[in-house]
Design a protein that fits this description.
- The complex is a heterodimer of chains A (479) and B (443).
- With 479 residues, chain A is α+β, with helices and mostly antiparallel strands.
- Chain A folds into 2 domains: 223 residues, PmbA/TldD fold (2-Layer Sandwich); 248 residues, no CATH class.
- Chain A contains 10 helices and 24 strands.
- In chain A, helix 1 runs parallel beside helix 2.
- The radius of gyration of chain A is 23 Å and the shape is globular.
- Chain A starts with a helix and ends with a strand.
- With 443 residues, chain B is of the alpha+beta class.
- Helix content of chain B is 23%, strand content 39%.
- Chain B is built from 11 helices and 19 strands.
- In chain B, the strands form 3 sheets. Chain B has a 6-stranded antiparallel beta sheet with strand order 3-2-1-4-5-6. Chain B has a 6-stranded mixed beta sheet with strand order 10-9-8-11-18-17, with helices on one face.
- In chain B, a hairpin with a 2-residue loop joins strand 2 and strand 3.
- In chain B, helix 1 packs across helix 2 and helix 4 packs parallel to helix 5.
- The longest helix of chain B is centred in the N-terminal third of the chain and has 17 residues.
- Chain B is globular.
- Classes of the chains: A alpha+beta (479), B alpha+beta (443).
- At the A-B interface, strand 2, strand 3, helix 2, helix 3 and strand 17 of A face strand 1, strand 2, strand 3, helix 2 and helix 4 of B.
Chain lengths: 479, 443
């Protein structure tokens, strides 16, 4: 497969590219979905092909083919160069590339149980059992469970001499219970909305103990139907760690993407409220806010050996004690902005142009605990597990809905609340972070569905978080 | 390029009498020229081929897919999928395969678009950028051409092909942005200069925007905003799986909407997009969802149809096992009035060009939150008087279209971009009695 990528690069160079790289890939995935003890879908798919990008002047040209022969790969390289040349009709300034080490290496995701070696019947039986347990709870109309696994082999070659083989293994899944009344539906999910995903093998699934949590989750979904609505007020908001992880993803992770800041995503994903001139001085949040982009965290979903430009995985500070200090970047965007390349460029398949993506963008742990946070809150609301999310194109105005909440009064959890929502403005919200848990409450959550780019690409990203408290947040926003 | 029908037939032949099986083979070329900061920065193309197989072995169902078309790859797909099916429990809701039936002889195909060069896409981009006269432009021009073949072991064989071309972009100033969108089956019909002019005009008029108080306002919604509302209704409401699961607002036969609202799905319409059958081999035909405000129908695949005692409406797609059958060739009935007349009738309200980042808070009530983007203007005494800053809304889409709430429908029906993508909805501008804005985007 190195030969295929090499042929593609040679084709691009012969056609006039000043730089070219290519990825030949083999990927297989398995998806299992169960609804109410019935299998909805069992799907095993494979894909294979080569994608090559060629740089000429101010533009990348990219072409991908599913054929695995040298002639097709070389032709794809020539096509990529031809496409890049056509961009000269609407030119910009020549696109520079930041230097990175030229590497020959192999990386394999550390794992214990290869997920494709675990019998399908074991996986299906586990999910059926989980949904049966949830259906034992009165009021539960829909009980779903799902598992998904990916194994991706990539052979990366660049015209500068990179030769890197990576095998990335990702495993994840989850389940949810939905209770339905005449005019409303209430859902609880585990481990989080859309499930939990990590790099690693089937040990990930075993560790989260789906069967042991199914009944509790279903009971909570049922109880939500008779819970009181979340009141509308401004109060202290305590977020469970998976909701805080999504808050990080949406209001920090996307905002610090350098391609957005440079305007390269302006028409679709959007831009950012951040201005490069304020890098190193802009206050993003309180002193408890320390954010890193760390592609080296063992087991986290955004962990790899090298990004899709051959840049080694690294740990980069993004927010240091509340001050914005870093951006997510690739070789081109870093060179344009004059910063060090961060190794954060990935494509979601061989057929897509790699672009700036989050790795593991997470909040470093604090020194408190959820128990302490609740004990030190005289009045507030504790919200858990995302239900909806919406944020503007500058990543400034957000509104999140959660599946469940509880009142907090005089240091204790009170009654359950349904339909909890909160809204805020990014730097104001993060400025209110005044307590943060850590220890074993710090979790490397995985987001398997981050959309960006045209054509659309779906990235798998990681977000470490622990429960945290935010002051003076507007909650209970409804139409 | 491969011959999709030959590949589909080959897979059915490999299956033999070992299972019930259906095969969908797609092949084509898609290309997208992307620009930002007024230059082309990402320019991509992709020659694709996909072979999808679903089998049922004595009611045990499994599916698989590959992007190879050689015999070894196809044989692996067949063997692996059969093996997986053998490990599954019996699916007592397996609806069986589609019987042989002809599909409409409709082809939304344009040779020029199918062979479009990167230079031709760049020319559309250049026209869009130049129309901004110095504003910063960003967006894309896309051409796509694909052929699809279906075959199953009952003998159903169908094929179709389609093309699509889109130009979509914004012009922006330091404080504002305006958008424009055109989609159709042919590249030649795209007018990059006109799109660029509209986007630049919205950007220019959007400067010096001011904040207004949150609250309920009368609105005039551009086709993009209306299209997003329509696709949300289709996905979360007029979807038989949502109905079966008790999560839909749909009440068949009831006057749930304003009498001025009619929405149907029509993949066969002249100038439309797509192919005349679904991924289960069911021929597609026009389907009324709302007629004069009355809820008329829901979309089915074979599974939901069997469970509810009807016929598939031809709305299966690769994700329908999970998400249900979705209408994606929506048409909203246009009115007779030009947009200016709708605006002229508004004493005080807001014009919204597009919505952004819309998410359902509750599927049953269709309460959705999202933001305005790329063109939000104040209307006073029948005129657009200035720009307002982007706003967040939290609003039930069902209630917004409810009886007495649609005050006008314009004559500007066209393919409009929506939250789920381009080419799925043809929508006009509409005037609605109220929309609940819950905050400004900048705080």
């Amino acid at each position: 497969m190195f030969d295929l990528a090499t042929a593609a690069v040679e084709g691009a160079l012969a056609a006039g590219a000043t730089y070219a790289d290519a990825r030949s890939m083999l990927r297989r995935d398995e998806a299992i979905d169960v609804l109410n003890a019935r299998v909805q879908r069992v799907d095993r798919s494979e894909s294979a092909g080569v994608g090559v990008r060629a740089l000429i002047g101010s533009s990348w040209g990219f072409y991908a083919v599913a054929d695995l022969d040298h002639a097709s790969a070389r032709d794809a390289g020539a096509m990529a160069a031809a496409i890049a040349k056509a961009s000269a009709e609407v030119p910009g300034t020549p696109m520079p590339l930041a230097d990175v080490p030229v590497t020959e290496d192999t990386y394999v995701t550390p794992h214990v149980e290869p997920p494709f070696d675990v019998p399908l019947s074991e996986k299906v039986d586990m999910l059926i059992g989980v949904t049966e347990t949830m259906l034992e709870v009165e009021g539960i109309a829909l009980a779903r469970g799902s598992l998904q696994f990916w194994e991706s082999d990539t052979w990366f070659v660049s015209s500068q001499g990179h030769r890197i083989h990576q095998k990335i293994i990702e495993s994840g899944g989850g389940f949810d219970a939905t209770a339905i009344a005449e005019s409303e539906t209430q859902r609880r999910s585990y481990p989080q909305s859309f499930g939990q995903f990590e790099t690693g093998g089937y040990e990930v699934i075993r560790r989260w103990d789906f069967p042991g949590n199914a009944y509790r989750i279903a009971v909570e979904a049922s109880q939500l139907l008779t819970a009181a609505d979340c009141p509308s007020l401004e109060t202290s908001l305590i977020l469970e760690s998976s909701q805080l992880a999504l808050q990080i993803h949406e209001s920090v992770g996307h905002a610090i993407e350098l391609d957005r800041i440079l305007g390269w995503e302006a028409a679709f994903a959007g831009t950012s409220h951040l201005e490069l001139s304020k890098l190193g001085s802009h206050r993003y949040g309180s002193g408890l806010m320390n954010i890193t982009a760390d592609a080296t965290i063992p087991g986290a979903l955004g962990t790899f050996g090298y990004d899709d430009e051959g840049t080694p995985a690294q740990r980069v500070s993004m927010v240091d004690e509340g001050i914005w200090v870093g951006v997510l970047s690739g070789r081109d965007s870093a060179a344009v902005a004059g910063v060090a390349p961060g190794g954060m460029v990935r494509g979601d398949s061989y057929a897509r142009l790699p672009m700036v993506r989050m790795t593991n963008v997470g909040l470093l742990a604090g020194d408190s605990s959820l128990e302490e946070i609740i004990a030190e809150t005289s009045r507030g609301i504790y919200m858990a597990t995302n239900r909806s999310w919406s944020i503007d194109d500058k990543r400034l105005n957000f509104q999140f809905g959660c599946e469940i909440a509880w009142e907090v009064e005089n240091g204790k959890l009170g009654r359950m609340l349904k339909n909890p929502t909160y809204t805020g403005i990014t730097p104001v919200f993060w400025g209110g972070l005044d307590m943060l848990a850590g220890g074993d409450e710090w979790v490397h959550w995985g987001t398997p569905n981050c959309g960006k780019g045209q054509p659309m690409q779906v990235a798998h990203t990681g977000h470490s978080a622990a429960p945290g408290r935010f002051s003076n947040v507007r909650v209970g926003v409804l139409g | 390029m491969i011959d999709p029908h030959a590949i589909a037939d080959r897979v059915v032949e490999m299956i033999g009498d070992r299972a019930e099986a259906e095969v969908v083979v797609g092949a084509g070329v898609s290309a997208l020229t992307r620009f930002a900061d007024s230059f082309i920065h990402q320019n991509v193309g992709n020659a694709y081929q996909d072979v999808s197989l679903r089998v049922a072995v004595d009611g045990r169902v499994a599916s698989g897919a590959v992007d190879r078309s050689d015999d070894e790859g196809l044989m692996n797909l067949v063997d692996n999928t059969l093996e997986v099916a053998g490990l599954m429990p019996v699916d007592d809701q397996w609806p069986g395969l589609a019987s042989p039936a002809p599909a409409a002889e409709v082809e939304h195909w344009d040779d020029v678009t199918a062979s479009a060069s990167p230079e031709e896409r760049a020319a559309v981009v250049k026209a869009f950028v130049d129309a901004g006269q110095g504003y910063e432009a960003a967006g894309y021009c896309e051409t796509a051409a694909g052929a699809t073949a279906f075959a199953n072991t009952l003998g159903q064989r169908l094929s179709g092909r389609s093309t699509r071309a889109t130009v979509d972009g914004i012009h922006r100033t330091a404080t504002s942005a305006g958008s424009a969108h055109q989609t159709g089956p042919g590249l030649a019909a795209l007018d990059g200069a006109a799109a660029g002019k509209l986007a630049a005009d919205r950007a220019r008029r959007g400067m010096d925007a001011y904040d207004i108080k949150p609250g309920e306002y009368e609105v005039v919604l551009g086709p993009e905003a209306v299209a997003t509302m329509a696709i949300f209704l289709a996905f979360y409401g007029f979807n038989a799986k949502q109905v079966l699961e008790g999560q839909s607002f749909v009440d068949l036969g009831a006057q749930q909407f304003d009498g001025a609202l009619s929405i149907w799905d029509d993949p066969l319409a002249e100038g439309g997009l797509g192919i005349p059958f679904d991924t289960e081999g069911t021929p597609r035909v026009p389907l009324d969802l709302i007629r004069d405000g009355v809820t008329m129908g829901i979309t089915h695949d074979r599974r939901t149809a069997a469970r509810l005692g009807g016929e598939s409406t031809g709305h299966a797609f690769p994700g329908s096992a999970l998400y249900g059958p979705i209408a994606a060739s929506l048409v909203i009935d246009a009115g007779d009035d030009p947009v200016e007349h709708l605006i002229a009738d508004v004493d005080r309200g807001i014009y919204v060009a597009t919505f952004n980042y819309c998410r359902v808070l509750d599927p049953k009530s269709q309460v959705v939150t999202g933001l305005t983007r790329n063109g939000t203007f104040m209307i006073e005494n029948g005129r657009m008087t200035g720009a307002v800053t982007n706003m967040r809304f939290t609003q039930s889409f069902v209630e917004a279209f409810g009886p007495g709430r649609v005050l006008g429908v314009a004559d500007d029906l066209r393919f409009a971009d929506c939250e789920f993508g381009a080419g799925m909805v043809q929508a006009p501008t509409m005037r609605l009695a109220g929309f609940n804005f819950t905050g400004g985007a900048d705080g």
